[in-house]
Input
Amino acid sequence: MKKRNVDLVCDIAELISLAEGGRDRKELLQKVVTSVAMHMHADVCSIYIYDEDEKVLTLRATQGLDNSAIGQVKLRLDEGITGRAVRELRPICVGKASDNAAYKFFPGIHEEDYEAFLAVPILRGLRRIGALVVQAREANYFTPNDVKALRAIAAQLATMIENVQLLSDARAEAVRLTQPAPKKVTADSLIRGRSASTGTARGKAFTLDSAKAAVCALPDPDAAPYTVDDFSMAVEKTVDQIVQLQRQTSEALADVAVLIFSAHLLILEDDQFAGRISRLISEGTDAVKAIAIVVNDYVEVFSKSKMPLIREKVLDVKDLGNRLTRNLLNETADEYDYRGQIIISHELLPSDILKLSAENVEGFIVSSGVTSHNAIISRSLGIPMIAISREQADSIADGEEMLMDAAQGIIYLRPGAEVYRKYQELDNAWKMMHNASDMKEETFTKCGERVHIYANINLLSDVHLAREFKAEGVGLYRSEFPFIVRNDFPTEEEQYIIYKKLVDQMDGRMVTFRTLDIGGDKMLSYYSSVSEANPFLGMRAIRFSLQNKDIFTQQLRAFLRAGADANTRIMFPLVASVDDFIAARDIVYECMRSLDKEGIAYNPDTQLGVMMELPSAVEVVDELAMEADFLSIGSNDLIQYMLAVDRTNEMVSKLYLAHHPAILRAMNRIVSAALTQNKDVSICGDLSADPRMLPFLLGIGLKKFSVDSVNAPNVQRLVSATNLCDAEEIANCMLDLGRISEVEAFLVDRNMAPEIEV
Ligand code: PEP
Ligand code: MG
Output
């Protein structure tokens, strides 16, 4: 009989490609052995899979041996011809097995009938995956060509078996997740991290790890098994909840929440999702497990996607898994959300934060550094956020009780009564510090100098707080959020509606629009720029706008139009030179001319300013102050770029020092240059609300502070308690100091650097 090895190799390639969709390892391996045996006219073909932990090969599929041996026949690497082939990482072809010393005979599976034996290891590099074995009754049956063919097949099988193995590990993980999580023992009941969004929170830990599905509910072992109908009802309930959530968020967060839950609904409608879960249930799989299996498959596929937009959907799929499971088990009467839970995540997107906030999450613990936008958006939403290391995050068990003191960046695990009492005090103190009830309309120093407090606005929903906290205007509107939480650039018209709402709600008060500040760690997933090796030094902020003039023009036109009959300003982020500013200003003038031509109303008196964020801008601040209408110190970036310390990098966070002498002197230079030119100057970075630094800032002549609204009461209180002469003396002393340690000693001496008490 003629062997057809070429056909065989092609056949197996096809089998493997078909298998990509099927993913049932048992079935696939069986097809492979059947095909090999048929094409090679071998009496037996078997596949053994190697377990690295146990160090054994187990028979997983066979054509020709007794089927009962599958899963039962096990070989160590020092046993039999197969074990030896795998151990020595080479094919072994034996003409007459019964004469071979290494031959291991297994009774009961009818191996004794076969003489010719060819074992080929299945390898990935040097990693042992298993063995492909053929046997024939006729001695000396296999030729060198057969060895080559079998090697080719083994090579193809290796990748496929490995992939299927990974998938089944993921499934096992999903099933494991439906069991109670074993409590991890933590060395300490307190974790110190870095605060990204202040406040206090209390809740149970809930880990969102991209490698596993977040299906967390446990089936009741005594309950009757759930049917396909039960699952269909869970789907209906889930759809209702999501539609309701979308409605609520669209009302509360109109500027950013455009259809943020739409992917949930699309995935639910996909036959490969809900349909496949139903099929698994009708085939006898436990319903909770069926959800976990399909959710895990989706998570795996999505998280490996090359397209960021698809990768971003991982959390949506997990959320769906949770909702479906809870609704199936009827865990809560009405709906499932993240109330009472603190999310621990390696990575969160601004849209995830929005969604989880709509689902009432209590707090966030992030383990891979906090992007500035995540911190900013959490602050806007009033949700505490703490950044910790990956190891610290791994030490927290799911379901563990926690208290977050995000002002200090401290997480208490399994807190006792004493910690709860302290937490209550902290919570009250935090509320008092941010209590706006005794805030005055205008702010004065102790000696009667007028100071202005403005609000930083990130989301339109911040405006009501700004009004409540009596902000005199908006010192910084971060315009990028409507761009970030979308699938595409918003049009001029969409932007106009958002900006106009902001202007209207501020009711005649000044509004400072900042042009788009993306790039760095603030990325747009739909903008397919090549990834940059150093994004903070790359196509960020005004550089992006100048490079993408059409996007810039649409934004500027929307700002100018929203400013008609109002008091509005526009400022440019990350200006590196006078030339940058002039180039941006020229485009504003172009926009004004085109609006004139089209007869569209706008604010022709819009003031144009520079955000002082770069060392190069500080060096040319005199010229910038001459050209611009105003300057605003973006201290968050100024510190980052002057000190070359990534503001999001935990490892260097101790070097991110606002009181570095270079920063103090740079800020002094900026303020002096602006005042010399009689130009308006303000500060809008986080430093503007730092109690330790407030006397210095007042002392160098700053009278305009733009802060997150919650900080306004405290800033007003501190300003009212400060005499300008004292502040000037403090500033002069600090400007004389050349070392960080001297500044620190000075602050401690003046009681302006209270020890952090834990
Ligand atoms: C700053 O850099 O200080 C600033 C206010 O801008 P952002 O934090 O948005 O980068
Ligand atoms: Mg900045």
DSSP finds 28 helices and 23 strands in the chain. The pocket of magnesium ion (ligand 2) is lined by residues 573, 613, 634, 636-637 (CB under 6 Å). The chain has three domains: 7-172, 190-431, 447-723. The domain at 447-723 is CATH 3.20.20.60 (TIM Barrel).
